[in-house]
Every structure is written in structure tokens, then in C-alpha cells.
User: Fold this.
Amino acid sequence: MSYSISLQKLVWGMLTLCVAFLGVFFAKLYRHRRRMKDLVSSNNNLTLRPALLNRTKPGPPYHPILGHLLVAAKMAKALPPDVHPHHYWLWLRQEYHLGDFFYFDVWPMGPTSLIICEAEIADQVTVKHSLDKHPMVKEYLKQHLGTENMASANGAVWRKARTVYNPGFATGHLMTLISDIVEDVTIFYDVLSELAETGEVFQLEATAMKLSFDMIGRLVL
Assistant:
């Protein structure tokens, strides 16, 4: 009898925890969607000059519960599975006739993002008012570059790391490497020509990445 009572209490305890978890989750979901609904329906809160404001739609169609998850599913079906992520935002902009920037909310599957498609606006948040990189950048890069790396660093830490590479990008040093850079680009051209002659589809990213590594290696080493 005592065993049955203990098992019953365990089951009720687990059910209580599940209900509490779902209650907290849906409360967070409600608050998040309500906040995002205000953002995607208006851009008056953005402190940009009127000439830079998005004059069309502030984002794709927004579902009050699912956010942009339905849009993300449609996009996944429309694009190849191995397409570069940059094509996501181009596809969204063209499909829904969006302007220079728009919100994209797929929480809790991923972070809410402000997609910027115009150089002058991007300059506002990367140069004039340099914002910190998203924590996901560091989380992703640490498996390749370790926890402390320049690519995911911010502020004083980034500036200190950047000074180490400054001599490699100095004008005087670059002038001494022009012939080597031309040689690398010539090889890149030959590789592309051979691939083009096959008439088959190939991934440009892998080939271009090799060129980037060759050139950057010459600059900093």
C-alpha cells in the first residue's frame, strides 16, 4: 500500500512540474509575442533619420502565436537545404516586398533578429555606434577558435587583439605582396574556369574560402 501511495505522489509531482513548466513557457511566449507584435506593426520606436526608415512593411506576415515560424517553414521549402544563410534574408525581402530593415521572430527556435539590408543603416550599428556581437556568435565560434578569439570579442578586448594584426594590413606591407596576391587570384580564376567548363553546379563558397585563407595568410604571417 505504501508503495502505491509513493508512486501516486511521484506521478502527481511530475504532472505538477509539467503543468508549471508549460505555464511559465506560455506566459513567456505571450509576453514575447505581444512585445514583438508592437515592433513588427510599427517602426516609430527606432531612432533613425526619417530618410532611413522602412517605408514599406516592417516584417513578413506575423502570427500572434507562432510569430514568423510559418514564414520560416515556407522559406525552408522554397530554398535549397544547403543554401548560404544570406539568401534567407534576400528571399524574405523579395517575397514580402520588405524595405531596408525588418524583424524576424522565430522564438523559441532561435533569437529574434533585426535584419538590416542597407549599408547606411548597418553603418549606424557597426561603426558609428558599434554594438556588441550576439552571444550566439561566441557560442558558435568557440568550437572552432576557442572561447577567447577576436572574431567574437567586443570593445577593448577586440581592439587589443586587432592591434596584433595591424602590421599585416599596413599599406607598406600590402604593396610588397601585390604580386603574390595577383598570383593567388590568377589561380582562383583558373579553378573557376575549369569548374565552369564542366557545366556542373558547384559550391563557390568552398573555392572562395580557400582564396581568402591564402590571401589572409600572406598578410598576417
Q: What stands out?
A: DSSP finds nine helices and two strands in the chain. The chain has three domains: 2-131, 134-166, 170-220. Confidence is low (pLDDT under 50) at residues 43-56.
